[in-house]
Amino acid sequence: MDLNEFRGIHTLVVMAIFLGIVWWAYSAHRKKANDEAAHLPFDDEEADQRTLDQEKTEKKQ
Q1: What is the spatial distance between Cα 14 and Cα 20, in angstroms, rounded to a whole number?
Q2: CA 49, 52, 54, 56 torsion: positive or negative?
Q3: Between the chain's N and C termini, which has fewer beta carbons within 10 Å?
Q4: In 1-61, which residue ranges form alpha helices assigned H by DSSP?
Q5: pLDDT in tens, 32-59
Q6: For residues 3-27, b (16+ Cβ closer than 10 Å) or e, as one string?
Q7: Confidence class of residue 61 from pLDDT cuts 50, 70 and 90?
């Protein structure tokens, strides 16, 4: 086994890992998590309230 065979096998392994990650990311069981992540920028009201609560807590201390 020479270096070029190793490079070919390495390329195939890396490509298989990449395709596995893509399949996992776009699979049906990830849809809910992906939808929640897509709506994070629009959930500012909750984040604003947490920030205000945290600022009030810090001022009391």
Answers
A1: 10
A2: negative
A3: C
A4: 3-25, 31-38, 44-60
A5: 888 888 888 777 776 677 777 777 777 7
A6: eeeeeeeeeeeeeeeeeeeeeeeee
A7: low
pTM reported for the whole predicted model = 0.57
Report how far residue 55's alpha carbon sits from residue 24's, in angstroms, rounded to the nearest whole number: 39
Which residue is listed with tokens 């893509």? 22
DSSP tag of 26 = T
d(CA 7, CA 38): 38
DSSP-derived 3-state class of residue 41: helix
Per-residue confidence (pLDDT) for residue 55, from 0 to 100: 76
- Give CA–CA dist 36/48, Å, rounded: 18
Q: Are 30 and 24 in contact (CB under 8 A)?
A: yes
